[in-house]
Amino acid sequence: MRTIVVCFLFLQIYVGGFSQYCEEFKDRNFPSFPTSVKPMTTGWVINTNFSDEFNTLNSSKWQIIGDPNIICHPMSPSAYFSDEPGNVSVGSGKLILKVNQRNSVQCTYYNQGNPVTKMYNYSGGWIESVDPFHYGYIVMKCKLPAEIAIFPCFWMHGAEYSSGQRIAFDEIDVLEKSILSPSNSLLMQNFYLDNELPTWSTHCQRLEFNQAYVGQDALFAVEWLPEEVHFYINGNHTSSIKYTTNPNNYNSLYPDVSYFTCAYINYAVPQRFQISLSLDLTSSPNPVLTNGFEIEYIRSYKLVAGNLNEEYWPSSFSMSDVNIFKVHKSIKLGGPGHTAVIPSGENLTLWAKDSVVLKQGFTLNTGTEFIARTIKTHSDLFQ
């Protein structure tokens, strides 16, 4: 039997307070949209509180932005947001957001504290989760519309307050079609920290594909861990962000899969899910609005805490071991009197707070991807 041993170590980088900030914008070109779906790795357990199959629009989970008043926003230059009929609907097990033509409405928004008043002839759909989410794996299955003038987005937003005043806010963009560079080939996956505030920094990653994904089912996901964020399309890892105060780490250590940027630790505030559909008529003055943004489901996952204070050292490896994929202080596989034969055709991750140790007798069979991950733990990370 031919044995292949592959191990990827995701190392922890700790962050303390610091005053400097950086801004980085990355373009990454892919030959094609990843059409093959890679299965989710082990360890994640469904979190039903923040998952929805969209058989109905559950008012205990979602609220429509623009209810009862219209909302205008710079992210949608040609449409305001409202709960008007047809903007947000559920049918055939899908959430559908649309942009619709309306009678002229005047609306004012604020851009960096300055009022901007405009007339709008369109309105779009935008919903937000009632409760905030904090850490985990979040995935959306959806179809992206073909109309170049409309801009789907799945994002998360959270803010910090002091004495009733907002002092900072954070944002994770799991999927965003770029309104700055209209294209059905260009997608972005980003985070923003303290945006429009004196300490703001941003990390914007633009991914350019062909247009084969338009109108096709696709999975967009983010793995949000304390001090690191990883983005995925159809389960394929596209880019990463990790926290560091070391300027030597601002450039990627793994240029094909990972970027580093500076970020303050308060980036870890809880965030609400947002699903929105914006409009910009610049690229298409007469848009075709028949098809909207169709979302089949949103599913979120948490990890399960094992023993965070002790090592877990099983006598043998087993996929049915209820403890093997939990997060422990450390995990050891193989060694004297122990065996660890990893089966073929699996996508495995072992999680630990401090270390994953592979000893003599550890064998990884053909066709399995094995990842050993050390992560900083937090109570909100766990089920």
Low-pLDDT runs = 1-24, 250-265
Distance between the termini: 39 Å
Number of strands: 27
Helix amount, in percent?
under 10%
Secondary-structure element order, N to C? EEEEEEEEEEEEEEEEEEEEEEEEEEE
Kindly provide the name of the CATH class of the largest domain: Mainly Beta
Write up this protein.
The chain is built from no helices and 27 strands. With 383 residues, it is an all-beta fold. It folds into two domains: 287 residues, Sandwich (Jelly Rolls), CATH 2.60.120; 77 residues, no CATH class. The strands form five sheets. Strands 3, 6, 7, 11, 16, 17, 18, 19 and 21 form a nine-stranded mixed sheet that branches. The two termini are 39 Å apart.
TL;DR of this structure?
The protein is mainly β.
Question: Top keywords for this entry?
Answer:
single chain; 383 residues; mainly beta; Jelly Rolls; 2 domains; 9-stranded mixed sheet; 8-stranded mixed sheet; 27 strands; 0% helix; 47% strand; elongated; disordered N terminus
Secondary structure elements and their pairing?
Elements (H helix, E strand, L loop, with lengths): L7 E3 L12 E7 L15 E2 L15 E3 L15 E2 L6 E4 L2 E4 L1 E13 L2 E11 L1 E4 L6 E8 L6 E13 L2 E13 L8 E8 L7 E8 L8 E9 L2 E6 L2 E9 L14 E4 L9 E8 L13 E10 L8 E2 L15 E6 L6 E3 L4 E12 L3 E3 L4 E6 L9
Parallel strand pairs: 1-27, 2-15, 5-9, 18-19, 22-23, 23-25, 24-26, 25-27
Antiparallel strand pairs: 3-21, 4-10, 6-7, 7-21, 8-9, 10-20, 11-16, 11-21, 12-13, 12-20, 13-14, 14-15, 16-17, 17-18
